[in-house]
Design a protein that fits this description.
- With 516 residues, this protein is α+β, with helices and mostly antiparallel strands.
- 22% of the residues lie in helices and 32% in strands.
- The protein has helices at 11-40, 51-60, 83-103, 111-136, 166-170, 494-513; strands spanning 176-179, 182-185, 190-193, 206-208, 213-218, 221-226, 232-237, 244-249, 255-260, 265-269, 274-279, 286-292, 295-300, 305-309, 316-320, 327-332, 338-343, 348-352, 366-368, 375-380, 387-392, 398-403, 408-414, 419-424, 430-435, 442-446, 451-456, 463-468, 475-479, 483-487.
- The strands form 8 sheets. The chain has a 4-stranded antiparallel beta sheet with strand order 3-30-29-28, with no helix packed on it. It has a 4-stranded antiparallel beta sheet with strand order 4-5-6-7, with no helix packed on it. Strands 8-9-10-11 form a 4-stranded antiparallel beta sheet, with no helix packed on it.
- It is elongated and about 150 Å long.
- The termini are far apart.
């Protein structure tokens, strides 16, 4: 045969040719890429493009979400942007970069000339920048400032401006208030009608007995309300022109003392609805009463205080002349060693117990003169027997705390309204005060910090009187709006009460086991 018969190429030869062609193409593509990057300054991507790149491209083409400021795009605000300042900052950054790049490419042949030229150029450059900054009134604070502004800052309201909708957004529905670790109900639990309740700041027309009976004077009548079953009973009705001016229950029992407008003090046995005796001594109405066991002290409009011994036929023990105007507040301390009296002469007198144990000394132990108005609200601290709280009238509006051992003022708080009555809580270290204009509220304060805990609102006129229930949980208030309101504001924590009861029972059982 003249020539060789050529068949298909072997498999190993095909693989060798394919590998040689692939390496040649790769080398050519790498060379082209390096050529392009060396001239264009763009670095090639080291990642192999795949599905992720397509997903990113699709994601970038989606509609952008709304901006936080509420706009559709980030459009600069012309009103908030200073274009002169922005132009200066942009040109300043561009010139600084070009100068740095030019300074980094000197040749070795003319380096000395360039140094001299750079010194002169930098001097001129500094002068030019200072001149531009001075003309544009730009300081160092704008180095990091924004060139474009995207939002307008709201202008400040003038000092005299008052938002008429402030009340709408600031008031809360009076349901309950969290006070430290407990909740205080700010609405009254019960409301009673009190028609003809006398609107007189200097009278004390309500009291709550240890037997859970509330005595209240309405017009010329005195009524008894049983808080346990709700029964109402009329105790007395005075003749035309006469009326009760003060009421006070004995500490234990059903004896009620009534000071009336004629200047006498009456003792009533309320269980039998019977008057026991009448004690005179004052020339004008008796507006305040306070019990100390069998001794009842009465304060009158004539400025005197009389101690009555209800056991004796000659009831008058002594007479005190420490006030020049009406005595409108009387309170014995919890240990019955001191008597505090407040008057319309803006004075608070503290009287110490007499040497014989009956009545008080004839001269006050302390004369407290810091109040600027009549003092009717008086309260003794149950856990600090030497601490007295007093509240002033409209011209004073302050609650003051006194140390009766030294006669010094402990603290004074401006309540911003007339102080009509004060009571200390038995279950918490708190104080409740009754107020007049402008809010006619009851306020609970944390003692001794005097941080306001809650305002109890509901009365439409000033709150003239307060009394506390025998268990110390409920406060009843009497207002000039002719209503009585009950507030369950000092209810003890049931968990704490249960824990205390458990401790007491355990202690009792251990004590019993020790007895043989």
């Amino acid at each position: 045969m003249d020539g060789d018969t050529r068949g298909p190429a072997p498999r190993w030869k095909k693989k060798l040719e394919a590998s040689m062609n692939g390496s040649a193409n790769t080398t050519r593509s790498v060379l082209s890429v390096s050529y392009n990057t060396s001239f264009s300054g763009v670095q090639p991507s080291t990642k192999t493009p795949g599905k992720s790149a397509e997903a990113k491209a699709k994601k970038s083409m989606t509609t952008p979400t709304k901006t936080p400021g509420g706009g559709d795009r980030f459009i600069p605000s012309r009103a908030a942007t200073n274009f002169e300042l922005a132009h200066y900052l942009v040109n300043k950054e561009t010139n600084d970069k070009s100068d740095e790049e030019n300074e980094q490419q000197p040749t070795t042949s003319n380096i000395n000339n360039i140094n001299n030229t750079n010194v002169q150029a930098s001097t001129r450059k500094g002068e030019r920048q200072n001149l531009i900054a001075e003309v544009a009134q730009v300081g160092d604070s704008v180095k990091n400032g924004r060139i474009l502004c995207y939002q307008n800052k709201a202008p400040a309201a003038p000092e005299s401006h008052t938002n008429p909708l402030k009340v709408v957004y600031s008031l809360k529905t009076p349901i309950s208030t969290k006070s430290g670790s407990r909740f205080i109900s700010t609405t009254s639990e019960r409301i009673l009608d009190a028609p003809d309740f006398i609107n007189d700041y200097y009278l004390n027309l309500m009291d709550w007995s240890a037997d859970n009976i509330v005595a209240v004077a309405l017009g010329k009548c005195v009524y008894l309300w049983n808080a346990a079953n709700g029964n109402i009973e009329q105790l007395i009705e005075y003749e035309e022109g006469d009326y009760a001016c003060s009421l006070s229950w004995i500490q234990e029992g059903h004896i009620l003392a009534i000071g009336n407008s004629t200047g006498v003090v009456e003792l009533w046995d309320c269980s039998k609805v019977k008057r026991l005796r009448v004690m005179d001594g004052h020339s004008l109405r008796v507006g305040s009463l306070a019990w100390n066991s069998y001794l009842v002290s009465s304060g009158s409009r004539d400025g005197t205080i009389i101690h009555h011994d209800v056991r004796s036929r000659e009831h008058k023990v002594s007479s005190l002349h420490g006030h020049t105007l009406e005595v409108c507040g009387l309170k014995w301390s919890t240990d019955f060693k001191y008597l505090a009296s407040g008057g319309n002469d803006n004075l608070v007198n503290v009287w110490s117990l007499g040497s014989g144990g009956v009545g008080t000394e004839l001269e006050p132990l302390h004369k407290l003169t810091k109040h600027q108005a009549a003092v009717r609200a008086l309260a003794w601290c149950p856990w600090q027997a030497h601490t007295l709280a007093s509240g002033g009238g409209t011209a004073d509006r302050c609650i003051k705390f006194w140390n009766v051992n030294t006669g010094s003022l402990i603290k004074s708080v401006d309540s911003n309204s007339q102080v009509c009555s004060l009571l200390f809580s038995r279950h918490y270290k708190e104080l409740i005060s009754a107020h007049g204009f402008v809010n006619n509220q009851l306020t609970i304060w944390k003692y001794p910090s005097m941080v306001k805990q809650a305002d109890l609102t509901g009365h439409t006129s000033r709150v003239l009187q307060m009394a506390m229930s025998p268990n110390g949980e409920t406060v009843i208030s009497a207002g000039a709006d002719e209503t009585l309101r009950l507030w369950n504001c000092f209810e003890p924590d049931p968990l704490a009460t249960k824990k205390a009861a458990t401790v007491n029972s355990n202690a009792k059982s251990v004590f019993r086991q020790s007895i043989r």
